[in-house]
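Quiz preparation item.
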């Protein structure tokens, strides 16, 4: 499609050049007024067959013959290319792209999001809710379509290219978010953005935390690890940097990021390694351990142990959990005194508390409020 559009643009330029040369030739050779020369050029190229505007001299007739030959060639090339665009169905895409380029050229103080994957999409959703003006650079056609369906201005291309950044208006942008899947690409985006606009705020996604120093040297203002924060937090960092209104956000973090935090407490009398805890709970990693004296240890290694009554803050990928359909119950299990899932045997008092919780857990989040009243009544009894 881009090749066809480029060819059509070249043909249009050649056609305009032939018209300009024809007009100038009649003015210089015959001494005609500019409008008469232009009119004669048009009726000659279109072979309408009208008579001569003024009597032509010998050199004028020779020039007209040359103009007809070149003009017919340019007209034939234009017609062929235009027909090709119609047949291949690329004409509407060409004009759509042109409209998008004009839209991008008018943006100012906007945020450029490089990459529209899962993280990039959540960043855009959050920033749109915060009132930011966005431009997306994405090379994958399916993701481009998803971004357009969300009403975003999309610049097709590779975000590591200076051309794509310039087309997205990096010199007028307030911030650039490098949300590509490869850290090396994000470093390159940061370098290019900083070189093209020294004043722009650059926030980069990093999977390998060992590259943070290099990213800072590349001109990144803030570095975010999605495994710890996710797209929603990145979006709020962008909002803080470019001065968008800060507002309390009461939505659950999992609704934005696709991740959730889970607290696991070791109620057994034996130590458990964090690797065992992560495996048993299906968690991605342990973000912190809260020891019995209240001390918090951040980013502990998997080999660290969780002693009795100590808690671990776990990161859970909600996409890995199959959601239940609305109204669908899961099999109900009776609570037994000898039941053990990594906690101490359940006594009668805990049975009384756990039974209503299981009833509530048997419903999806939409229908759960329907049984909340019953559970509260049971707990009061």
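Solution:
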């Amino acid at each position: 499609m881009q090749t066809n559009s480029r060819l059509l643009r070249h043909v249009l330029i050649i056609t305009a050049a032939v018209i300009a040369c024809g007009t100038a030739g009649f003015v210089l050779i015959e001494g005609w007024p500019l409008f008469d020369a232009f009119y004669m050029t048009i009726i000659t190229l279109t072979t309408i067959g009208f008579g001569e505007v003024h009597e032509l001299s010998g050199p004028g007739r020779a020039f007209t013959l040359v103009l007809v030959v070149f003009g017919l060639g340019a007209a034939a090339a234009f017609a062929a290319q235009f027909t090709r665009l119609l047949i291949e169905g690329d004409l509407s895409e060409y004009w759509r792209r042109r409209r998008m380029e004009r839209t991008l050229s008018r943006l100012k103080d906007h945020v450029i999001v490089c990459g529209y994957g899962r993280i990039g999409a959540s960043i855009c959703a959050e920033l749109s809710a915060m009132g930011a003006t966005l431009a997306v650079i994405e090379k994958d056609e399916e993701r481009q379509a998803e971004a357009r369906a969300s009403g975003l201005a999309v610049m097709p291309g590779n975000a590591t290219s200076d051309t794509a950044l310039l087309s997205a208006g990096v010199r007028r942008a307030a911030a650039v978010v490098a949300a590509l899947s490869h850290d090396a690409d994000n470093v390159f985006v940061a370098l290019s953005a900083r070189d093209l606009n020294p004043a722009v705020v650059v926030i980069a996604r990093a999977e390998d935390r060992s590259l943070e120093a290099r990213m800072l040297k590349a001109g990144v203002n803030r570095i975010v690890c999605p495994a710890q924060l996710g797209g929603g937090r990145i979006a709020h960092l962008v909002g803080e940097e470019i001065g968008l209104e800060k507002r309390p956000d009461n939505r659950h973090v999992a609704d934005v990021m696709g991740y959730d935090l889970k607290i696991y407490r070791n109620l057994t009398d034996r130590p458990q390694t964090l690797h065992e805890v992560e495996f048993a709970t299906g968690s991605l990693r342990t973000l912190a351990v809260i020891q019995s004296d209240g001390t918090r240890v951040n980013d502990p290694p998997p080999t660290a142990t969780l002693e009795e009554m100590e808690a671990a803050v776990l990161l859970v990928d909600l996409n890995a959990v199959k959601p239940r359909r609305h109204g669908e119950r899961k099999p109900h299990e009776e609570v037994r005194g000898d039941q053990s899932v990594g906690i101490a045997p359940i006594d009668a008092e805990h049975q009384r508390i756990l039974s209503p919780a299981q009833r509530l857990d048997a419903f999806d989040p939409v229908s759960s409020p329907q049984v909340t009243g019953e559970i509260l009544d049971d707990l009061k009894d």
